[in-house]
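SAMPLE LOG
Freezer: B-3
Tube label: C17
Construct: single chain, 139 aa
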Amino acid sequence: SKSSEEIKQQNSELSEQVHSLVSKNSAMKLDIEDLHKKLEMAELMIQQFSNQGGSLDANQQLQMVLEEKASLETQVAQLSESLQQLQVERDRYVEKLKEEQSIWQQRVQQLSEQIHAMAEEKEKHMAQIRELEANVTEL
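STRUCTURE (predicted):
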């Protein structure tokens, strides 16, 4: 019973961790989508500035946009890497949770078999007691 409770507790904790990782994963996906949109906007601005030609302000703006694009690409790469790491970690927790569940099911099966064996043993003892009582009464 005690180890069953411990296993249930571990399963609960692992389940919470999986849910946490799933929510982080979803948030990072949204961040990546947002950064991709910003990157597309930066690329559109680059095209617009490139088409306008050679004024100094346009060139400065183009340089700023190029720098922002590079920064956004770096952020996208970092978030993608973090997302992959979270997915790997989530998969490990899921695997551990499955292992714990398997161990728990085996333990429940063992305990169930023990209960069944004890019930049969009790029945045998009860039959012996009835037989002995009958012998005592007869004597």
